[in-house]
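About this split. The held-out portion is used to measure sequence recovery: a designer receives only the structure tokens and must propose an amino acid at every position. Recovery is the fraction of positions where the proposal matches the reference. Here is one held-out target exactly as it appears in the evaluation file.
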């Protein structure tokens, strides 16, 4: 109410009436004052000025009042519009408030659900963490065991490599494609390739093998091993062609390397140089079949060859001849100049006999000063011609030893070998009898056994 009264007192209309009253009071004051001062003209002028001022003030107040009324009208319209907008805003705010409350309720429900889900996740995470910790412990234990196994495997590998490096045989390992994985030092030496150079190369390109007898290329045992899926393949007639072209006889074998499922994952080839072995074997074989002094076949080898010839005569109806050769006066050489002179005489006689016989014939020292001669595919007529040649050579032979000249003679006994010959012993006995006959008839001659003895 106080605000309403203040609004009315300060309105333009109230102010205008206040000014009009003020002019009247001033005019009345001037009149009263002029009555005492007799200033009518001045009073009139003042009255007119005041009246004009009052009239102008009234006009201004009128205009101001109209403008105030218009403004007040617009303010009322604005207030009405504002009130309408406020109502709409209030309604919208109420709706928004309701929606916000619902959203808050939903948010709280969601937060509660999220809290429960979080607790569930934390429980799952705790379980998973426990499982991971157990798995981690198991993994650490497995890693420790694997490291231990790796150490053992490394030790075994080192031991195997040291073993392979120290053994006398050459060792080559390959993968399942036949490509070289490892060469030990002996294999490097025999093949002519270093391990680093050979690694990854096909073994067939590294090792060129020939058949020692035919000199034809042969398949590498590793390739044969893969092709035949065999446990091991051995070949004792291989000739290895080194990288520098040198030929080395080898004895080789190969075996597949299998995994736990018995699948072939590679192969190992073992070989060694047999040149020394063969030389030694040949030497032993030679010593076993030949006389150490003269280099001729010994009695055992001679009888072996004689048995084969006898068998051939019986089966193929071929004719051969057997001779016993016994030196005359040989004992005098030993007694006069010693055994060294006798040995030298035997060696020279052996050379002399070799030049007098055919290449296919077998000359042997049977013992002491006795020799045997096997003439293969030879008639008795041809044998007699060879006997005469031997006698000619022996009669022309002279051994000079320490200023002493030594001459010896030769008694020969011959026997035919044919399908009627009975056995080895009968042949030897017949030849020995014929030789004895030559000695009994004066030595330095040959005698032919009349007919082969029969059982």
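Reference sequence for scoring:
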């Amino acid at each position: 109410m106080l605000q309403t009264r203040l609004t009315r007192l300060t309105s333009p209309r109230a102010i205008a009436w206040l000014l009009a009253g003020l002019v009247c009071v001033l005019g009345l004051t001037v009149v009263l004052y002029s009555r005492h001062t007799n200033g009518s003209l001045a009073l009139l002028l003042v009255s007119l000025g005041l009246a004009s001022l009052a009239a102008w003030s009234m006009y201004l107040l009128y205009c101001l009042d109209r403008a105030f009324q218009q403004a007040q009208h617009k303010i009322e319209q604005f207030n009405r519009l504002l009130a309408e907008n406020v109502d709409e805003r209030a309604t919208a705010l109420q709706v928004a408030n309701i929606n916000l409350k619902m959203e808050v309720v939903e948010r709280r429900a969601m937060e509660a659900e999220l809290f429960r889900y979080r607790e569930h996740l934390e429980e799952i995470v705790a379980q998973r963490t426990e499982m991971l910790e157990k798995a981690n412990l198991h993994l650490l234990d497995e890693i420790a065991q694997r490291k231990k196994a790796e150490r053992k495997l490394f030790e075994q590998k080192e031991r195997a490599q040291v073993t392979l490096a120290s053994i006398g045989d050459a060792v080559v390992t390959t993968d399942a494609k036949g490509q070289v994985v490892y060469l030990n030092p002996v294999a490097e030496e025999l093949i002519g390739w270093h391990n680093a150079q050979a690694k990854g190369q096909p073994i067939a390109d590294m090792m060129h093998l020939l058949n020692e007898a035919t000199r034809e290329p042969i398949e590498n045992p590793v390739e044969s091993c893969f092709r035949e899926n065999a446990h091991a393949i051995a070949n004792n007639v291989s000739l290895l062609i080194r990288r520098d072209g040198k030929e080395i006889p080898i004895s080789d074998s190969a075996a597949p390397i299998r995994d736990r499922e018995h699948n072939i994952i590679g192969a190992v080839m073992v070989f060694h140089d047999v040149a020394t072995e063969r030389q030694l074997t040949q030497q032993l074989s030679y010593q076993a079949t030949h006389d150490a002094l003269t280099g001729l076949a010994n009695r055992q080898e001679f009888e072996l060859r004689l048995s084969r010839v006898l068998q051939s005569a019986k089966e193929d109806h071929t004719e051969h001849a057997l001779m016993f050769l016994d030196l005359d006066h040989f004992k005098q050489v030993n007694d006069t100049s010693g055994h060294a002179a006798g040995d030298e005489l035997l060696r020279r006689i052996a050379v002399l006999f070799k030049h007098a016989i055919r290449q296919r014939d077998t000359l042997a020292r049977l013992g002491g000063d006795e020799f045997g001669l096997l003439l293969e595919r030879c008639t008795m007529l041809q044998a007699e011609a060879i006997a005469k040649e031997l006698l000619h050579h022996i009669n022309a032979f002279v051994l000079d030893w320490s200023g002493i000249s030594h001459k010896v003679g030769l008694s020969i006994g011959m026997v035919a070998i044919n399908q009627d010959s009975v056995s080895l012993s009968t042949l030897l006995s017949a030849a020995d009898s014929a030789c004895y006959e030559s000695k009994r008839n004066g030595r330095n001659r040959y005698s032919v056994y009349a007919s082969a003895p029969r059982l």
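Annotator remark: The chain has three domains: 77-151, 167-274, 290-448.
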